[in-house]
Specification:
The complex is a heterodimer of chains A (about 100) and B (about 160). Chain A is about 80% helix and about 0% strand. By secondary structure, chain A is mainly α. In chain A, helix 2 (about 30-60) packs antiparallel against helix 3 (about 60-90). Chain B has helices at about 20-45, 50-70, 70-80, 80-105, 120-155. Chain B starts with 20 loop residues before the first helix and ends with a helix. The relative contact order of chain B is 0.16. Classes of the chains: A mainly alpha (about 100), B mainly alpha (about 160). The interface of A and B includes residues 80 and 87 of A.
Amino acid sequence: MALREIAVLLFATGGSFFALSAAVGLVRLPDLYTRAHSASKGDTLGGLLTLTAVAIAFGGGLSTFKTFLLIVFMFLTNPTAVHAIVRAAHDQGIEPWTAEEEP
Amino acid sequence: MSVENEGEVEAGFRSPYVESPVIMATVRVLSPFVFTFGLYVMFHGADSPGGGFQGGVIVGTVILLLGIAFGIETTRNWMGPEVPVALVSVGVLAFLLAGMGSVLLGGAFLEYSAYGAHHASRYGIEFVELSIGFIVSGVVAGLFFVIDSGQREGA
């Protein structure tokens, strides 16, 4: 296998792993804040690694540049969007889950 | 909902919203790119995926971004209530102008070849896409503000 194929495989597998763990966190975690925490980090990293695999697979040129731009904007917007959602939830007075009460 | 005004940029607006520096910085960086991308999508409706509707929604999203970052009431006061109406009116007028102009020149409605310009069809489609983009962005921004004001009055 060529070095590029190995790199693509590694990045795609890593991205899938983080996306999967984000999904598991979304189902398993108790409240909005912890779910946002899992979804933002997992999805950002998962998308980032998967898009890196895509960029490598394109092998240079305009498509790689466009994918790189996608990575940059996803890295900027995804955490900010989750920040905005969590802030709005906090403004609405949603209490964070604590260990005393069972979900 | 508690009213906190310590984060307001300009005093005097009744708003429970407190700005977040994170969101404001991101929106400042992103808005020009989103706006340019919207125009790009509009202009590429003639020969590739895209068009006035999609590009107009993207341009309208810039106003939504500003509203989310700086407070909806502040954005409305900054932009003025007549801007969405003006966008929609200018778009409709431009579309009608492009359509009826070819009729006046002896063609059918929106028959661009009647204008006789070089690549008349291509530039005609781009002009019409741009006016559709004007309409759609005005409608998106206007609906956003209308929904917000209804929510505040009905609460």
